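Predict structure. Chain length: 243.
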Amino acid sequence: MSAEKFYRQGKNLFDQENYIEALKNFQLALKENPQDLNSLYARAMSYFKLTEFEKAIKDFDQLVMQVPDNATFWSERAVALHLSGQNEKALISFNKALALEPENPYRYSSRAYVKDHMKDYQGAIDDYTKAIELDPEDAISYNNRGLVEEKLGYQDKAKSSFKRADELAIPSKENIANQQASNVADHANQTEYKDQQIIIESEGEDTRPAFSEYVKVIASVFSSRQGWKEFLDFVSSKFRRNN
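Prediction complete.
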């Protein structure tokens, strides 16, 4: 069987959430063609879903070496590093992604998340503020900036951020139209790997998830701007107190 057939078979299995068998197929594809970047990326994402983060990092290391101008590879590498506890390296990797896409508000939001986790609260606020500057309609960045502002005791600023987040979160025909236009633009700007990349979707729960499920959600949030928004919607609905 050719590398392409192994890849396609693996992708179908991945879509069915059969990650172990998908991984086997991606490994066979790479055995047939070690230079197949699509299979290498797919294998990295399979390790990702299986929470084998160190193995995922090794694959992402190869990807960023071969395609150093792909911001998504740097970003997903950063997530794996973060989940493996290597936050300093994760921050460096996010910096690389941001350098490649300095006008992408999602990159700032991603880096803000890690800075918040590292207790660099002012740095997180600065990145959320930059994300808001680039995307003034992003309710999630307002909401999460408010969460960080609360940690620093900036209660008035936090209330203002939450208020704006709540205002923007109210659905309207204009907001829906703008989001649809944004989705079209995002789709048009994808890399050449878009048609073959595996998109990990975060899954919301009605109750707080077990740690293993929480890790699965975290592992996907930097994969796309929409994934990030879905995760933060989930977090804010479960953990943010009413104001």
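Summary: The longest helix spans residues 173-188.
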